[in-house]
């Protein structure tokens, strides 16, 4: 007799950006149908929709809203642009609350031609400015360090150590760190910093995908788990040893996969999750 393997998908979450060709209603329906338990919602997925109603639609489908993506981008050459970024982040905190997402992911930002040190100070100032609003709304903020290849224009926070340092400067249970294997896998201090992150209560989220060999596009060529060189099981082990028991969030930006039939891609995600996470 054929036995169907029991796949535990209760910790599997997918980012709407992963299946970008689908609108959020289609994504919700298809994720739920294959047993995915959580969804992280990107801001563009809510365009033209009532945020609160969309959150209820997701919960009605049986999905847990895991996070809202992505705030941050604090640094700017002009003060008025930094103030605009702070306003935008406060708005995103309100949207996260309406949506029912407990966490807002922060991609901290960087400005080409501006020193990383200055960008880091502006990031710290930006976080200081929005943190009281987040605390009041009971929304957690997660600093996501990005791979150093993004230090030009996306983030001046590039290692888990930096993110830990920054989170620990603010003594707030509403500020922590988002741990993404794509950005962090290469770091010789990863195990120790993961442990530190957990010990300080700052390990808020865990993102997975793979690093393809070769990577053909810096932004839009992420791999499916098992397709590249990241030992996801090992890193997941470190994250869980550090006390994390939240979702494994699949976040794949890929022109190649976006061109595919998304239901086929979704089946591949579930299969890869079962085998390589
Ligand atoms: Zn991520």
Walk me through this protein's architecture.
The protein is α/β, with parallel strands linked by helices and 277 residues long. The protein has a single domain (12-276), classed as Divalent-metal-dependent TIM barrel enzymes (TIM Barrel, Alpha-Beta Barrel), CATH 3.20.20. It is 42% helix and 15% strand. The chain has ten helices and eight strands. It has an eight-stranded parallel beta barrel, surrounded by seven helices. The radius of gyration is 18 Å and the shape is globular. The model has no long low-confidence stretch (mean pLDDT 97). Zinc ion binds at residues 144, 180, 207, 251.
Keywords:
277 residues, alpha/beta, TIM Barrel, eight-stranded parallel β-barrel, 42% helix, binds zinc ion
